[in-house]
């Protein structure tokens, strides 16, 4: 299975590192969009289907927290998992992000294994890289 992802960070180098980590973690990327801030991310989200978002917290113009709020309040976007990444993350900031609907929180500097673990948890992959079986009945699925 391949994924459409959006990586949002004001550092081009960090966006590149994140993209590489996602790839070496075993995830096939169909499309990877990059945005330098939350405003650019909103523009991308209005035009493309995204399976998950990895976003920095502290960015100019529109912060990661503000982006998270906009995604979670939008009926079309609210189910997209959002993973927050920050260099200045306190326990309080982590809890606030999770309460606002973030699917995961990673503090910089990070190890590739930390990103891989969060992706496994968010996307529903077990430690062996196998997708967890959906336990819903056909009547519960929206198709």
Q: Please mark out the parts with pLDDT under 50 across 5 or more consecutive residues, or reply none.
A: none
CATH homologous superfamily?
Response regulator
What is the second-level CATH architecture? 3-Layer(aba) Sandwich
Query: How many strand elements?
Result: 5
Topology:
Layout: E1 2-8, H1 12-24, E2 28-35, H2 38-47, E3 52-56, H3 64-73, E4 82-86, H4 91-99, E5 104-107, H5 112-123
Helix pairs in contact: 2-3
Structure, explained:
The structure is a single chain. The chain has 143 residues and is an alpha/beta fold. It has a single domain, classed as Rossmann fold. It is built from five helices and five strands.
Task: Provide a short characterization of the protein structure.
The protein is α/β, with parallel strands linked by helices and 143 residues long. The chain is 38% helix and 20% strand. It has a single domain, classed as 3-Layer(aba) Sandwich (Rossmann fold), CATH 3.40.50.
């Amino acid at each position: 299975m391949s994924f459409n992802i959006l990586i949002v960070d004001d550092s081009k180098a960090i966006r590149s590192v994140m993209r590489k980590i996602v790839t070496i973690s075993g995830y096939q990327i169909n499309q990877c969009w990059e945005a330098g801030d939350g405003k650019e991310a909103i523009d991308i989200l209005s035009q493309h289907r995204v399976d998950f978002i990895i976003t920095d917290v502290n960015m100019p113009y529109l912060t990661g927290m503000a982006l998270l709020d906009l995604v979670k309040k939008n009926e079309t976007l609210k189910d997209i998992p959002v993973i927050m990444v920050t260099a200045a993350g306190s326990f309080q900031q982590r809890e606030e992000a999770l309460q606002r609907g973030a699917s995961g929180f990673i503090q910089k500097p990070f190890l590739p294994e930390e990103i891989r673990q969060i992706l496994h948890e968010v996307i529903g992959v077990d430690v062996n890289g196998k997708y967890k079986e959906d336990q819903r009945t056909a009547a519960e699925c929206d198709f």
